[in-house]
Amino acid sequence: MGKYVLNKVLIAIATIFVLATATFFLMKLIPGDPFASLKTKAAVQEKQREYYGLDQPVTVQYFRYMGNLLRGDLGWSLKKAGRSVVDIIKEAFPVSARLGLTSLFFSVLIGLLFGILCAQFRNRWPDYVLMLVAVLGIALPSMVLGPLMRYFFGVKLKWLPVVGWGTVDKMIMPAIVLGLGTVAGETRAMRASMLGVMTQDYITTARAKGLNSAQVVLRHEVKNSLVPIVTGLGPGIAGIMMGSFVVESMFLIPGLGRYFVDSITNLDYPLIMGLTIFYGAFLVTMNLLVDVAYGLLDPRIRESGRKGGK
């Protein structure tokens, strides 16, 4: 197990290094001057470029940036005076994480429940109805679902605030909009996994031993169906916890998504690179944790990793 985890950790570190390198050089291909829109003299703009190291050759900038990155320094925002990228992340990430955790709890709980019901009522009307909801969750993007919910529940019915952040009622609509796509994915994945498990011989044996339907479903079908579901949680958890650019902008939520959109609009290079690397590192870390959890749940994964390392 130790060698399996070590291999995964080394792959994760290499992935983050490649991501940071690619992000840095891709940023240099973006046209435009971050200081051109400022109403300052050319001499002042040159001083700003010198301060941020933009007057140095690209290779010098790269090694300086990677050296700072190893120390946990992501630089300073070009447009938000006096604020470091790390400080911005510390301020915005808890907001995105809180929204993401709320949405994740809702989406995973409902998605797994829908998937179990679809499998138990296969090819009957509950299966069709719940799968229709799942398909609609995938088909309706957040940029369409969000305005619809804001109009009906916020403007017409006046049940929920249209925008804002900080109270429970302001979290309901953004959490649903952000998590509906995950509900759809979890429903389809759990249904497919359950249907595969239900045909296994040990399920027939469990029923032959006299276990009732609820015991068979909970002890055997659901438990063994969750193993493949775990593999998809890494990207899902990372994506939903890091927030959505569209959802956070739509509901005026001060999370990472809004900062990322603003940084692109303002050509704030350090902030763009810092948020991209932070998001990528978070995604890689979640995948690493899922791989380790998957190895613990299924010994065959550890054995395949051990053979691959020989």
Summarize the topology.
Layout: H1 2-27, H2 42-51, H3 58-70, H4 85-120, H5 125-139, H6 142-156, H7 168-198, H8 201-208, H9 213-231, H10 233-241, H11 245-250, H12 256-265, H13 269-297, H14 299-309
Helix pairs in contact: 1-13, 4-5, 4-7, 4-10, 5-7, 6-7, 7-9, 8-9, 9-13, 10-13, 12-13, 13-14
Structure described in brief:
The chain is mainly α and 310 residues long. Helix content is 77%, strand content 0%.
Keywords:
single chain, mainly alpha, 310 residues, 14 helices
Can you offer a commentary on this structure?
By secondary structure, the chain is mainly alpha-helical. Helices cover 77% and strands 0% of the residues. It has 14 helices and no strands. The radius of gyration is 24 Å and the shape is flat. The model has no long low-confidence stretch (mean pLDDT 80).
Bulk shape: flat
Structural class: mainly alpha
Strand content: under 5%
Count of helix runs? 14
